[in-house]
Specification:
This protein has 155 residues and is mainly alpha-helical. It has 6 helices and 3 strands.
């Protein structure tokens, strides 16, 4: 027989907010993933992330502050759009990584892609086929966002 008190306690423990260290690791990972794509977050993101890690604001509040920051900045320079992407996606990744109920499946992966890139790309959370011809005659076919599949030869 299940111990209902124990089950509810375990659920309570599983849903506790992340510690400062866990939040720091989530933000660090989020920012590092932007660097992989050659994107550089703004100083505002770093300041907001520190407030989140220090417990001054929640990750949800950090996400809202970053969104508001860019909504209030009319007439940005073109190259700032990549910084905006880095900031918004970093906040969304930090939020996702700080959630306790994370599972990785194809459905979850698509949902993650939709959540991270909503309002940034029209194909967020959708399958899109991208074909890129290489100089060596190879093609890269990507049913985005799922799998990278190389096809070599003349087509």
């Amino acid at each position: 027989m299940r111990d209902i008190k124990r089950d509810s306690f375990e659920e309570y423990i599983r849903n506790l907010p992340p510690t400062r260290k866990e939040l720091g690791q989530a933000w660090s990972t989020a920012i590092g993933l932007q660097d992989v794509d050659g994107l550089k977050p703004s100083e505002y993101l770093y300041e907001t992330a520190k407030k989140s890690i220090d417990g001054e604001i929640s990750v949800d509040e950090a996400d809202a502050l970053i969104n508001n920051y860019y909504e209030s900045r009319a007439g940005r320079l073109e190259d700032e759009s990549r910084t905006e992407e880095a900031d918004k996606v970093s906040a969304r990744i930090a939020k996702l990584l700080s959630e306790k109920a994370f599972t990785f499946s194809p459905t979850q992966y698509i949902a993650i892609h939709r959540e991270l890139f909503k309002g940034i790309y029209s194909h967020a959370g959708k399958f899109v086929i991208i074909i890129s011809r290489r100089k060596n005659g190879c093609c890269m076919e990507i049913p985005f966002p799922m799998v990278v599949h190389w096809i070599c030869g003349k087509h």
